[in-house]
TrEMBL record:
It comes from the Bacteria. This is Alpha/beta hydrolase fold protein. GO terms for cellular component: membrane. It comes from Paracoccus denitrificans (strain Pd 1222). One of its GO terms (molecular function) is hydrolase activity.
Length: 331
């Protein structure tokens, strides 16, 4: 199974050009790509997005981390979902880069980043994010996390604080995937608990038989519904240019599933926060909890018609980027 289909800068930084040494995406990928479905306002081919760059840096434990970037202005750095990458966010990058300097990090073992057995913990992913911010010399930036990417940002805040974050954006990530046996149902809903067995959850994501009491499988069910041209184009692009390696991607899942981020959300998020979810996601109650728990939170809940599920950024990038721009503008 494809894992989940197989985030104001200082003025000088905000107006900085694409990073020195970055290469055009077509050069790095050594190919052009024709998107299978024409969508008005979107490029028909990758070569029609010449501003898109791909670069990489090496972490302090010797792992090469790739990142995608385009645009200029206020920086927004995305950390994508488990198994996801910059290719899947191609439409979000295109749309948001009209007004912002957009970065998408490929986490270790995902996208174009190096495959490794090292550092398969959310804390290490947070260190990678910290080192990417240092590499890019981003003193003040917006961090946006989708699914596991939100957990990486919560870990970053826990370890390194919020001095470099102007605003934060979280897309449909449970506060605690693991359901504790002594929780009330209200606590489970607020945390977003979706399994009582991380091992069986991981096995289910790999295709083992399961049921809804073992793990919430609505995420994978909705992920398989390639029900908009945007997600069909993004998925086709990612499948064409990203090597498939679900075994390496799975290494971080146990640690990801067993973290509980309620203390970080309750006590450490001191910047404006936008939370995105929708009525087709079982995570919606926990996303509402995040928005009302942080000091300055706003919930964007999408309807079924607006593709309000775990994949909302990929299925409805126009709506997502419009709402994101409004949030970044303080509207």
């Amino acid at each position: 199974m494809t894992p989940i289909l197989r985030g104001l800068s200082v003025l000088a930084l905000a107006l900085a050009p694409i990073g020195v040494g970055a290469e055009p995406a077509t050069s790095v990928l050594k190919r052009d790509f024709a998107f299978p479905e024409p969508v008005e306002g979107m490029p028909a081919r990758l070569s029609e997005f010449p501003d898109l760059q791909i670069n990489a840096f090496t972490t302090n434990d010797g792992v090469s981390i790739s990142y995608w970037e385009a645009g200029s202005g206020e920086p927004v750095l995305f950390v994508p979902a488990w198994g996801s990458n910059g290719a899947e966010l191609i439409d979000v990058i295109w749309l948001l880069s009209r007004t912002h300097h957009v970065y998408v990090m490929d986490p270790r073992n995902q996208g174009l980043s190096e495959r490794t057995a090292k550092g398969q913990r959310i804390a290490r992913h947070a260190m990678d994010l910290n080192q990417l911010l240092d590499h890019l010399e981003l003193d003040r930036t917006v961090l946006a996390g989708w699914s596991m990417g939100a957990a990486v940002i919560w870990a970053y805040v826990d370890l390194f604080g919020t001095d470099h974050i102007t605003r934060a954006v979280f897309v449909d990530q449970p506060v605690s995937i693991y359901t504790h046996a002594d929780w009330t149902e209200e606590e489970r809903l607020n945390a977003g608990g979706m399994t009582t067995s991380p091992e069986r959850m991981i096995a289910a994501f790999a295709g083992a038989p399961t049921n809804q009491q073992v793990v919430d499988m609505k995420v994978t069910h909705r992920a398989r519904m390639l029900d908009t041209p945007h997600i069909r184009n993004a998925t086709s692009f990612a499948q064409a240019v990203i090597p498939s390696d679900p075994d390496h991607a799975a290494l971080v899942l146990f640690d990801h599933a067993t973290n509980d981020w309620r203390d970080v959300i309750s006590h450490k998020l001191d910047m404006p926060v936008a939370v995105f979810s929708g009525e087709e996601s079982n995570n919606l109650p926990s996303q509402a909890w995040i928005a009302r728990t942080v000091p300055d939170g706003r919930l964007y809940s999408y309807t079924a018609e607006q593709q309000g599920d775990h994949m909302l950024m990929l299925k409805n990038p126009v709506g997502f980027v419009s709402d994101l721009r409004a949030f970044l503008a303080g509207e």
